[in-house]
Each structure stands twice: as C-alpha cells, then as structure tokens.
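Dear colleague,

Following up on yesterday's call, I've attached the two folding results inline so they're easy to grep. Please treat them as preliminary; we haven't cross-checked anything against experimental data yet. The first protein's sequence and structure tokens come first.
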Amino acid sequence: MSKILIASDHAGFILKEKLRDFLGKKGIAVKDLGTYSKERCDYPLYAYELAKSISLGKSKRGILICKSGVGNSIVANRLPKVRAALCHCVRIAKLSREHNDSNVLVLGSAFVKADLAKKIVLAWLNTGFLGGRHLKRVKLIDRIDKKIKIRSR
C-alpha cells in the first residue's frame, strides 16, 4: 500500500494525531499535511492540499478530518478524480470503497470517536473496489468532471 495522506483542521487535530499514530503502529506509511496544533485554522486549505495530491495522481488515498466532515467533503469533491466519502460507520466506509472507489475518507470528529474511527479507517483501507456495474458509474463521474472542466474554460 502506498503512503496515506492525512490532514485536519483544528477541530479534527486530536483525532488526526491518534489515527496517524495508530496507522504508523500498523506499519502503514502516513504523510501528515497538517494542521499541527489545536490553534484555529481554515479547513479548506488543508482539504485542498490533500485533494490536489489525489487529483494530480501524486497520491492514491487520503483521510480528512474536521468537526462535521461536511466542509472537507465539499472542498475535496470539487477536484477532478477525487471521490471523497464522509463516513460515520464501518458499513458506509466499506460501501464507499466497494461501490464508489472512494479515494478520500472524511471523518467528522464530533460524530466519530477514536475507537470507531480506527475501525472505519481499517475497513476503508482494506476494502477493494468491486468494479463491474460500479465501474460504469465511476466512469460516469469522471466524464462529468471533464464536462464541468470544459464548460468552465
């Protein structure tokens, strides 16, 4: 497995730190894109940096954490080839991989505590994309990305 990116804002900082350490102990390489403290910051900057790396193909997968998870999801999904999934349980994390080939996992620290987050992350990392009928839909998403890009020129 390639290096996993992780980033958060101030509200997700403590959970990010716990997950980064947890993944490291599991032997999973993690690149921490910040934030590096509980000091108030702007989540769009961190979500964009992580999503940009995924969009450009520099990284395969990443994890974003903010208070609700909604803001990070909105930012990340604006970039082409990013399929960010806001997950609050193991089942949704698995489905996001199996059906949508999600490449960014988004967690809301106000709703997902560390023990559950660890289970969600492991399920998400260890679940593969099923392809088949789901591949057609992922390709449709990619075509929509391209259409939007063309229209905005």
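Below is the second protein, in the same order (sequence, then structure):
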Amino acid sequence: MSSYEVVHRAIHFERPDRLPLSFAALGLNDFHGVKWRQIGTGDRSLRETVDEWGCTWARSEMSNMGQVKGHPLLEWSALEHYLWPDPDDPRFWDGVEGQFEGSEGKYISTSIFMLLFERMHALHGFQNTLTDLYLERERIEMLADRIVEFDLGIIENTARRFPGQIHGLNFTDDWGTEQATFIRPALWDEFFKPRYQRLFDACHAAGWDVRMHSCGKVNDIIEGLIEIGLDTINLQQPRALGIEEIGRRFRGRICFESLCDIQHTLPFRGATEIREEAELLLQAWATPEGGFILSDYGDGAAIGVAPEKKEIMLAAFLAADRWKKGTAEAQRTQRAE
C-alpha cells in the first residue's frame, strides 16, 4: 500500500497493512504538508514576532514556539480600528504550488494553526475569553463567528485552488487542563460544537478528513467531536486522559494519533516502561480494522526527550504493529492454501 492508502485506511477503519507513521524526526513520514502562507508563531529565533492576526508572540532564551503576550483585541474598544485578515488575500497563496513537490504517494494535509478557541483567546486574552462567554455573549459570539468565517474562507480557497489534491485538514485547539476541559461540557456543546460542525462540514464537502490536536484531559468533549464528524484526534498525554478509559469509551469510533505520554513517560521513564506503554496504547486504542497513527511530538528538546528515547519508542510501536503482523499471517495462510 502507498502511504496515502495506509493512512486513509487507518482513519476509516479499512484495514491498513501496517501502522501509519508521522515521525519526521527519524525520517519516517506517511504525510506531506502543504499550507497557505500563514505566519503562525513566526521565526522562533526571534524574541518577538507578530502573526497574521496581529498577535505578538514572545519567547525566552530557550528555543520554543513562544506565547502570545500581545492580544490585539484585549479590550473590545480596539474593534473600532482592528484590521481583520482576509482569506482572499492573494499573498496567502504565493508559492503554495511548489509545496506539493515530493508528495507522490503520500497523504497530503493542509493546516490551520489555532482554529477557533485558541485564536479567540490569542486575540482577546484567555481570562477575558472565558469570562465573556458569560458577560459579553453578543461580542464573544461575533468574535467566534468572524474567526469561523476566516477559516471557512481558507478551506474554500484551498479546495478551489487545489481540487482533489488535499486529503485532510490538521488544526490545533488545546481544550484541557490536566484535570478537565476549560469550560463546562454543556457550554462547549452549546457554543463551540455548532461552530466546529460548520468547519468540519466544509472540510468533508471538499473531500478532506479532519484531524484535530488538543492537549489536556479532554475526555468530556470527545463524544461531541465524534458526533459532528471529527475523523482523527491527536492526543499526546494519554496518561492524563486515562489509556484504558479512552479505549473503553471511544475505541473504534474515531482514529487516534498518539505516542507514549510526552509528560509522564518519554521524559522520565526507561526503555521497559516505554515499550509497555506502546503495547498498551495499541491494545487499548486501536482495532483490527485500524484507528491508530503513531504521531511524534516534534520538539523533543523542549520536553527533555533525547533522540535515543524516540528510537526506543518507534521500535516498540513497530514491534507491536498488529496490522503488519496480521497482514503477514494472512499472507502465510494464503500461501498455505
């Protein structure tokens, strides 16, 4: 199978012949990314950068993605002079065609960094965003809807410019602390779920899968995400979520992108514990039909994980690859017959 087929079959539970990999750090990647010219966090070598929304990113001396310290809509009065980014701006599309080079046979994904909730608090401030869900409902709805309209414009422009060439959309929205989601699940269902549905529906109409990354213990919103059509969820803290609980509730209903826990296991545990967790994740979260992608955390230095640890983890997942074993067994049976 091609890389595309392996990923597609894993996401849609159609029996891939091996474990799909998003592991560029070790030169193994079934994915190829193309994207509109978003600034995102900007040049990480600089202490400050400004993204396309006017949010200022600040960094410490240590190399890192940074944190938004300048919120252009911290006060609602700033709306009077704020310039919203335009998804039809032709500069966003300069040079995108060239990004397809080297994508043959790969699963091609595009992305929107900070899709909705993260963009809301990057613009308006985290505390302000949470409190204004109650105190300034009309204005916070306006903010959310303007962001959704921008995202829809990016999705529609990408689909129109590159018809049939994109397979999925990746996005980030961190939704949890170590204990729970930032807001009550009922409020998430009321406010955010219908807005995400608009975006997911637009992706599916374009023929794309939808792949979401979210940090924290987001157990209470996974059901809602499944209901509105999320295809893949990237969870990098499986110990915080509860490996057995997540498997019991959602195995076979959504595809997981994950790895050994980036906070508890990879930085602080040895080879034996890493191997045991890799085996447990595949047992608890994957099915014989698919439903799991090994997705690396790209910045190992930031979480204190040396390349040697990643190599141990990769080897452990490959050794426990149930689909490759199943394919080999099926081939042996066919030959015997």
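For the second protein, one point worth flagging: The radius of gyration is 20 Å.

Best wishes,
A.L.
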